[in-house]
Write a structure and sequence with these properties.
mainly alpha, 9 helices, 76% helix
Length: 202
């Protein structure tokens, strides 16, 4: 199995599991939980593939659907609802790192410009979480805290930059993912975030 396929499956499972847990916390029914899990897990990869003129990955790879279903079943079997805590935060962060590298790697394989590779890496990583939060009527984490977008961009820039210098692909992927994880955890621990716009009152 190719590296891209492995990364897509891994990030899909993690995002589906996190999405299903958030949907369960919001009291959605089984159908709603399954829908949120699917949206959270495949939206980023789907948008990435559309931009690259490729079929959405869930059409070409049946295993994507299987891992989404598995995540939903796990959520429904283990019915104890736990508020979003450290475990899901860690899972979501690792999913963010994997998806960032997956998106950037596919763009590199399609020989698009390095800027597009970076942007597609970030799009793959953050789109599902944004739609998940909007559909669950939760304030989107991407737009107000934890520098999710920044973490993904830093990881994508690192990964793509190392590829530009022809560094070993596996090593580049590990370092890029490490940058995503480190940046997000540091931002959470020290409560760092991008400056917010404050309108001046007359």
């Amino acid at each position: 199995m190719e590296l891209i396929s492995v990364l897509d499956l891994a990030s899909t499972f993690v995002f589906a599991l996190v999405g299903a847990r958030i949907a369960a916390d919001k009291g959605l029914d089984y159908g709603g939980i399954a829908f949120i899990a699917a949206v959270a897990s495949v939206s980023g990869g789907t948008l990435r593939n559309i931009f690259l003129n490729l079929k959405p990955v869930w059409i070409s790879d049946p295993y994507i659907t299987i891992v989404v279903i598995a995540a939903v079943i796990i959520t429904l079997v283990f019915r104890r609802v736990t508020r979003i805590g450290k475990t899901l935060l860690i899972m979501d962060t690792f999913g963010l790192a994997i998806a960032t590298i997956s998106g950037a790697q596919l763009a590199i394989d399609k020989e698009v410009g390095w800027q597009a590779c970076v942007i597609l890496g970030a799009i793959t990583a953050v789109t599902g979480g944004l739609l998940r939060d909007v559909l669950c009527q939760v304030e989107p984490v991407l737009l107000h805290r934890e520098t999710i977008g920044t973490s993904s961009l830093i990881g994508a820039i690192t990964f793509v930059g190392l590829n530009q210098f022809e560094v070993n692909q596996t090593f580049s992927a590990v370092i890029g993912a490490f940058m995503v994880i480190t940046t997000r955890f540091i931002s959470i621990y020290f409560d760092l975030h991008l400056p917010k716009f404050k309108s001046s009152k007359s």
